[in-house]
Design brief:
three-stranded antiparallel beta sheet; single chain; alpha/beta; 237 residues
């Protein structure tokens, strides 16, 4: 029995009301990406970066819910006879709230903070500010969102590479294919012999790399594809 690796991006959470990054009304709107998603931007203006993430955290905690695509992936993990791992670029917690358990957050988690002084990662459901002290080392000024910015090393890469090399199916959902190393996962999986399927509203920068592309909203296409996989019409099973 082969395994399935699912890569998700901002598009899977769009129907839950979380803006994507690169859409017309995307998350970067009003902010050059270098100001809010690089270590240099944080060093230059930590309050701006905190306010960007504080706004997203309070929105996430204020009524955003998983949608049909998140729920379908959790069902796939429960009911598929082989292993299913979701690798998400998203920092929201919608996959875990939907019930996914085998889940890797390669770009970190919005509901965690990390101390730049002692490295402690802690749950964080409140606003962060530069004056907040770390609960572990007691120093203030070092806390930052536990996320991966441009120029930083994503998390779990060795484990993800191993999974891609053993996958029977690589499914990519709602990602632009612009940001590496995630954008290169399809090539790794394909070289290892996996079936590769993309689900996206539009053509992405990575579409050409996939064996199959399905166009439309994740909330409709993911449940339908999961039904297909569980009915056994798939060569990963
Ligand atoms: C729907 C939908 C619906 C909408 N249904 N679909 C030159 C070449 C190659 C690489 C580089 C380069 N120069 C620099 C780099 C490296 C750099 C990089 O990739 N830059 C590119 C911009 C060129 N990468 C890095 O720095 C990474 N680290 C790194 O490389 O370390 C060194 C290394 C070396 C060797 C091996 C491994 C590593 C780190 C990248 C960190 C990215 N961080 C962010 C912020 C995270 C925290 C936060 O959330 O604020 O991650 S940036 C942002 O982009 C976020 C996302 O996870 C990521 C990807 O965005 P995503 O998910 O694709 O969203 P969108 O908005 O772009 O697209 C949404 C898609 O959904 C669209 O296609 C829509 O059509 C679709 N959609 N609604 C289905 N309802």
């Amino acid at each position: 029995m082969k395994s399935i690796v699912v890569l998700t991006g901002a598009g899977i959470s769009a129907e839950s009301g979380v803006p994507t990054f690169r859409g017309d009304d995307g998350l970067w709107e009003g902010h050059p990406v270098e100001d809010v998603a690089t270590p240099e931007g944080f060093a230059r203006d930590p309050e701006l970066v905190h306010s960007f993430y504080n706004g997203r955290r309070s929105k996430l905690l204020g009524g955003i819910e998983p949608n049909a695509a998140h729920l379908a992936l959790a069902r796939l993990e429960r009911e598929f006879a082989g292993d299913v791992t979701v690798v998400t670029q998203n920092i929201d917690d919608l996959h875990e709230r939907a019930g996914s358990r085998c889940l890797l957050h390669m770009h970190g988690e919005l509901l965690k903070s990390r101390c730049g002084n002692c490295g402690t990662v802690a749950e964080c459901r409140q606003d962060l500010q530069t004056g907040v002290a770390c609960g572990c080392c007691g120093k203030s000024g070092g806390l930052r969102p536990h996320v991966v910015w441009f120029g930083e090393m994503p998390f779990h890469l060795d484990e993800i590479t191993g999974l891609l090399c053993r996958a029977g199916l690589f499914l990519s959902i709602g990602t632009s294919g612009l940001v590496y190393p995630a954008a290169g996962f399809v090539a790794t999986a394909r070289a290892a012999g996996a079936r590769t399927v993309e689900i996206n509203l539009e053509q992405s920068a990575g579409t050409i790399c996939f064996g199959e592309s399905r166009r439309g909203a994740a909330g409709e296409l993911v449940p339908a594809f999961v039904d297909e996989l569980l009915a056994g019409g798939d060569d990963a099973g």
